[in-house]
Design a protein that fits this description.
The protein is built from 7 helices and 13 strands. The chain is of the alpha+beta class. The protein folds into 2 domains: 116 residues, no CATH class; 145 residues, no CATH class. The strands form 4 sheets. It has a 4-stranded antiparallel sheet with strand order 2-3-1-4, covered by helices on one side. The N and C termini lie far apart (90 Å).
Length: 343
């Protein structure tokens, strides 16, 4: 009998994958996105042509080899994604401001080679090997009164699970290519709207078109600005400590001020946003601790009831009346009777 031992590992081929790069300026991020998009298109065509012959290539086709030679890196693995045909299923990609995001819902990752390309293009920060969908955070000025926009915003806000603070998946009023799951946070005061939600980079143009069609002018849009999640959630809960009125958010990106602030229009109070963010985090932590404590108590109570029931059942069984023993049958089939002698 032969025994063989080997090492194995999961391929992660069925996972989504995200890569985020940040550059010194928006122009470089946009230029890099254009070049990378063209490379994905050409690479997909060349890979499909090779695989149509029935073989998976041992090395990357010419487009990938040329990219590596131009930017001074080497391919250790063949770049692929999805199931079979790569063309038409290229990774979702977008640049906004100084950030560039690449995302695919079904691939084994982008390896170390694409980050090497991004570094050669001038990326100052790279996040690789993350499986959650990219996030977009948006700020814009918009008072209530646009019935269509008001209704659609309410529909977006209502999707957030209050316990885990996410959307599964996020249903949008604009056309999307992929359904996205992830963290979400929203706020709306008298003049400002803040949105933070998961998005496929390819869907960003559709989102911008939706904003324009609803009359939203000059929105501030950022990709993967994770601090905005806690910020927007804290703003939605912020109240004036003097009069309990909801506070309004002011931001240098969309307001003529130097630093972000929270203001009370009712009594004129001004507040530091960091205080409310810290309070919101503390509350969330306390709520989580309380929830964990309640869960543990319920489990303990349930276990205690089981322990109480077990002795009770045992005692009941022990004290239960035993059935009377059957008398031995006589030879004639009748029950034996004890003879009684008369004196």
């Amino acid at each position: 009998m032969a025994i063989r031992v080997w090492n194995s590992f999961s391929c992660n081929n069925s996972s989504s994958y995200r890569l985020v790069a940040r550059f010194a300026d928006a122009a470089t991020a946009t230029d890099t996105a254009v070049e990378l998009r063209m490379f994905f298109l050409e690479h997909a065509k060349q890979m499909d042509a090779v695989m149509e012959e029935g073989n998976f290539p041992d090395e990357n086709p010419p487009a990938a080899q040329e990219l590596a030679k131009k930017y001074g890196f080497k391919w250790k693995h063949v770049l692929t994604w999805g199931d079979e045909m790569l063309e038409g299923d290229e990774p979702s990609l977008a640049a906004e401001g100084d950030a560039l995001v690449v995302y695919h819902t079904y691939c084994g990752g982008f390896g170390k080679e694409l980050p090497a390309f991004l570094e050669a293009k001038g990326a100052t920060e790279i996040e690789n090997e993350d499986r959650s969908a990219p996030s977009v955070s948006v700020l814009f000025k918009q008072a209530r009164g646009n019935a269509e926009l008001d209704s659609e915003l309410e529909g977006m806000f209502s999707q957030v699970d209050e316990e885990v603070q996410d959307v599964e998946p996020f249903k949008t009023p604009w056309k999307t290519r992929w359904e996205c799951y992830g963290r979400a946070a929203f706020f709306r005061d008298a003049k400002t709207v803040g949105l933070y939600f998961p998005i496929a980079p390819t869907d960003l143009p559709n989102f911008k078109e939706w904003l324009a069609e609803r009359g939203v002018a000059k929105p501030s849009i950022r990709l993967c600005e994770y601090a905005d999640e806690d910020k927007f959630r804290a703003i939605s809960q912020a109240r004036c400590t003097a009069c309990e009125a909801a506070l309004e958010y002011l931001d240098p990106r969309i307001d003529d001020i130097e630093s972000e602030q929270l203001a009370c229009r009712a009594c004129g109070g001004m507040y530091d946003l960091a205080t409310f963010i810290a309070a919101a985090k503390k509350k969330a932590k306390a709520d989580a601790k309380l929830e964990a404590g309640l869960t543990a108590k319920l489990a303990a109570d349930a276990e205690a009831k089981k322990l109480v029931k077990k002795p009770a059942k045992a005692a009941k069984k022990a004290t239960a009346k035993k059935p009377a023993a059957k008398r031995p049958a006589s030879k004639d089939g009748k029950g034996a009777k004890k003879a009684v002698k008369k004196k």
